[in-house]
UniProtKB/TrEMBL annotation:
Keyword set includes Iron: no
Pfam families assigned: HNH
Protein name (database record): Putative HNH nuclease YajD
Region spans: Disordered: 1-33
Natural source organism: Hymenobacter negativus
Domain of life: Bacteria
GO molecular function: endonuclease activity
Family from the record: Belongs to the HNH nuclease family.
Keyword Coiled coil: no
Gene3D superfamilies, A to Z: 1.10.30.50
Residue ranges occupied by any HNH nuclease domain in the UniProt entry: 42-96
Keyword terms of this UniProt record: Endonuclease, Hydrolase, Nuclease
Listed CDD domains: HNHc
Length: 133
């Protein structure tokens, strides 16, 4: 007697569902492949072992376990990616705040040098300025 296959047949034309929750190191790996290197992982581990509490929280007299080894001077700004002296331990909220601040500064700099970001192109004032010549 014929039986139905236990698994649905392979349908390669249908893209596989991507996991929606990604770990922070995976998001970092998208930004720079250096985050995926064994050298970075060892450096990050050493940093968090040496400074296990969030530095920003400590400045506010709070004790919070750190989970992020953060570049004090962003490596995009030309600092050495693997310079241990340029690292600080942060908790997730403090790191998010710092990253958001850095992104804000970066966008502001891009706007001032007329390197409009896509979001800026949607800005009517920018369009007006761009087409006025
Ligand atoms: Zn913190």
């Amino acid at each position: 007697m014929p039986t139905l296959p236990s698994k649905s047949p392979a349908r390669p034309w249908i893209p596989k569902a991507q996991p929606t929750v990604r770990k922070s190191y995976q998001r970092h790996a998208e930004r720079s492949p250096l985050y995926d290197s064994p050298r970075w992982r060892a450096l990050r581990r050493a940093q968090l072992r040496q400074e296990p509490c969030c530095r920003a929280c400590a400045a506010k007299k709070r004790v919070t376990p750190a989970v992020v080894a953060d570049h004090i001077v962003p490596y995009r700004n030309g600092s050495d990616f693997f310079d241990a002296r340029n690292l600080q331990s942060l908790c997730t909220p403090c790191h998010a705040r710092k990253s958001a601040q850095e992104g804000h500064v970066r966008r502001k700099q891009a706007a001032s040098t007329h390197q409009a970001t896509p979001s800026l192109r949607k800005c009517p004032q920018w369009l007006e300025m761009a087409f006025r010549g």
